[in-house]
Structures are given as C-alpha cells and as structure tokens.
Amino acid sequence: MTINDPWGLTGRSVVVMGAGGGGIGTAIARHLGAAGASIVAVDIDADKLAVCTDALTAEGVDHLGLLADGRDREAVTDVVEQATRLAPLHGSVHVAGGMWPPQWAPFASDDPAFDDVMDLNFGATVNTVRAVGRKLVEEGRTGALVNIATTSAINGMPFGSAYAAAKAAVLSLTRSLAVEWGPRGIRVNAVAPGSIATPKSASTRKPGDTDGDDLLVIPMRRRGTSDDIARGVLFMISEMSAYVTGQLLCIDGGTSVRPTYNDRDELPVFVHNEELRARLARW
Ligand SMILES: NC(=O)c1ccc[n+]([C@@H]2O[C@H](COP(=O)([O-])OP(=O)(O)OC[C@H]3O[C@@H](n4cnc5c(N)ncnc54)[C@H](O)[C@@H]3O)[C@@H](O)[C@H]2O)c1
C-alpha cells in the first residue's frame, strides 16, 4: 500500500465467485477492478457472466471471465490456477448463493431443497475459500478473503432455515480461518447484506410492486444497492482494513440492530402511554 495505491490491490488478482447477473457480484467486480485489482470473474451462467465481463471490458479493467460451478471442487481449484496466471493472487470474494421461492419450505416437511441450499451457500463457499487460501499459503503470499453472508445468519429465517444455517456456517468458517491463517498474513472477513435491490430480487416481484410500508422495518428507510455492498467489500479486501480479520460487516441500513417489536414510530408496540408517544412524536 502506498499513498498512490491506498487499496494495495494493483497488479493482484481477486477471484469473484458469482460475479455475473448485474447484482452484488458484478458491482463487487467493478469496484475492485476500478481500485486496480485484476478480476477473475466466475459464474455458472454464460449470459450472466457476460453482463459482468462486458462491464469490465468497457471500464478497461484487466480481467478474465471463467465459467465454473462453485460447488465443483476441482473446477474451483482450476479457477484459482488460472487466476495466478492473470496476476499474483490476492484473494477472493465468494458471492454465489441465495435461495429461490420454490426452495422455501417448512423445516418439518423434509424438503429435499434443504441440502441444495446448504450445498450452494456453504459448500461452494468452502470450495472457494479452501482453494484460494491453500494457494496463498503454498505461494507464501499475504492476502484477503471476503465471504458474502446475510443478516439472516445472525437472526434466523423461518421457512428458510437452510439458508440461514448455511450462511451462519459461513460466518463460523470465516472466524476459524481468520485465526488459523492470521499468522500468515491472510485475512478472512464476511459482509452481510440486508435487503438489497438486485435483478434477482426484482424477479420475485410483480410488475408495479412498490416497497411502501415495507421500508418501515429499515431504519434508513430505503433498500440497499449492490454498490452499497461493493464498497464494504472493497474496504474488507483492501489494505484499508489491514488490521481487521474474522469480522462481520453488516450493510443493512441498520435493520439488524432495530428491535423487531418496534412500531412505525420506532417505539415498542407495548408502549401505550399517549402522552409519552405524543411528546416523542414531536421530535
Ligand atoms: N439480494 C439481497 O437482498 C441479498 C441479501 C442478503 C444476502 N445476499 C447474498 O448476496 C449474494 C448475491 O446475491 P444477488 O441477489 O446478487 O444474487 P444473484 O443470483 O443475482 O447473483 C449471484 C450470481 O451467482 C451465480 N451463481 C449461482 N450459483 C452459482 C454456482 N454454483 N457457481 C457459480 N456461480 C453461481 C449466479 O448465476 C449469479 O450470477 C448471495 O450470496 C446472496 O445470498 C443477497
């Protein structure tokens, strides 16, 4: 890191697993690329990958686009080999994950989607982190890894227990590896998005849907953007956070610290004293 390169990413490669689709992964690839990193953009879907690589090309970012399934251990190992040929490896951001409407189910129903959700959200993270960490250790390099979690990992998610459990496992892995690899100068952190407006989250809505009263549960009264997440990831993967490891950065407009029993006036629902309510409402 120098005063002219505050991020310390110039000439180093970063694997972004799940970089396609124009959502969080694409924004991360673009922000890290703009900060000087050589980007290895990886996705399972060719059309989605092209959304990212087209943007990186237009922005003059040194990059490589690779099609691979993050759940396939050998494929991920090969991705890391290719990354080292693009530029000396710095680290990774594991983005690939999520849960789709057909996968929501009561826990007691023995739904077969449970294992699939665990496999994508935890298994694929394990593959990326292991392949990248192992390579950094083999080459004796320092570096940084960031794993994308969710605020559901610290709360819970009824009918989405596999998703919350898998991402909670990602947080646990992040902490263990921060300690295991700390002496080698390899940092491992996590970022937990709150509700982020992405092309994927838009696909689960009906045309004309608006956020309306839904925004009342978010202290900052807006949904996040992919750029909000990318800026936090850039901090966590760069020299700006050189002494930070094993930590979780929630980027959620304050949702994770808001008491769930608050009403629209941000008072607990069980506060009925009209005088008190009127006095505070004037503020
Ligand atoms: N959007 C939100 O509100 C939100 C909230 C909390 C957490 N997150 C997390 O952020 C991440 C990205 O979310 P998004 O909304 O941008 O999702 P997205 O589905 O738009 O982006 C993920 C990308 O990963 C790719 N991908 C999926 N499976 C893959 C696999 N097996 N191997 C490689 N690539 C694969 C997809 O093709 C897609 O391009 C996910 O981990 C999600 O759990 C999102």
Give an account of the 3D structure.
The longest helix has 27 residues, at 113-139. This protein has eight helices and seven strands. The chain has one domain (13-281): Rossmann fold (3-Layer(aba) Sandwich), CATH 3.40.50.720. Helix 4 (113-139) links the parallel strand 4 and strand 5. Strands 3-2-1-4-5-6-7 form a seven-stranded parallel β-sheet, sandwiched between helices. The chain is an alpha/beta fold and 283 residues long. The chain has helices at residues 24-34, 46-58, 73-86, 113-139, 161-181, 199-203, 226-237, 274-281, and strands spanning 13-17, 38-43, 63-67, 89-94, 143-148, 186-193, 248-251. The structure holds nicotinamide-adenine-dinucleotide. Residues 17-18, 20-21, 23-25, 43-45, 48, 69-71, 95-98, 120, 124, 148, 150, 193, 195-196, 198-201 line the site of nicotinamide-adenine-dinucleotide.
